[in-house]
Amino acid sequence: MLLSQLAYFEALAREEHFGRAAESCYVSTSTLSEAIRKLEAEVGFPLVNRGKSTYRGLTGEGRLVLDYARRINADQRSLTQDLAYRRGHLDVTVRFGAIPSAADRAAELLGRLVDANPSVRVDLVADLTSEDIVSRVLNHELDAGVIHPGAARGHTRVGQQGAVRLTALGSVHFSVVGRRATMDRFDGHVTGADLEHLPVALLGRNMLAREGFDRAMEDVGASVTPAVETTSVGSLRALAATGNWVAVVPSSGAESGDLVSLPLTAPKVDLDVALVRLDTRPRSMLIGALDEAARA
User: Fold this and answer.
1) Gap between the Cα atoms of 209 and 144, Å rounded
2) pLDDT in tens, 154-204
3) Tens-digit pLDDT profile for residues 268-278
4) Which of 20, 97, 222, 290 could be 217's S-S partner, Cβ–Cβ 3.0 to 4.6 Å?
5) To which H or E segment does residue 230 belong?
6) How far apart are CA 21 and CA 26, in angstroms?
7) Cis peptide bond upstream of 282, omega within 30
8) Exposed, middle or buried by CB within 10 Å (0-12, 13-18, 19+), for 248?
9) Dihedral sign, CA of 279, 281, 284, 290?
């Protein structure tokens, strides 16, 4: 059994397409397909359900092998990273996930990581849900991410195989962004009651930040019906820039151009955020560097 076979197999499960998997591994489709057939012959079971030329999911045995392949491939990546560090620097690509409401916090953490380790490169997957990030960390598809910590409930038991570790990064609070002509009517802040009468753009209902917003509005008896929903903070700001909507976004300082940001009050919405990563032993040099950046 070769490491390359396990890497190709993991790529196929991730991409769910032979051609895309081969492209992601920088090999031909025939090379990837033949490697997986050899892996199947070695383990003695079909691992992939195939049509005439299409991927149709994994067999039961394939799902079992995938669990092991992910762990073996992750250990191989950690070994390679740690050996690179022995040569004097951390020369790796960190695969990082970020929720929309903590994009700025993720950028700050990654900035500290790269300041301390200039050879580190970043593969940032943005606008994920906290649940998506936890799942991808557990499946070794991401090295770490920034989430709302409630999404990791049930996965943080110390010493448990497949557990994650959280490092608190403080909290984010929300503000309301809109064109100056719209925002000048308010006296330095916007309330939940004000939002009832405005065309509002919000994060989607599948985001924990949105759930926190909805709970806070319910607590003060405000009924805010969004005119637009999206999973992207960048899209929220772009919508606000048109002047057709105001957007509720994580606070990040002053806006540019004609956009104005005012704090959201009555209720004030604060949501905790945290770094999440696998709780592995031994801890790789990359994970150690991420922990240091989170504590800085």
Assistant:
1) 19
2) 777 655 556 899 999 999 999 999 999 999 999 999 999 999 999 999 999
3) 999 999 999 98
4) 222
5) strand 228-230
6) 9
7) yes
8) buried
9) positive
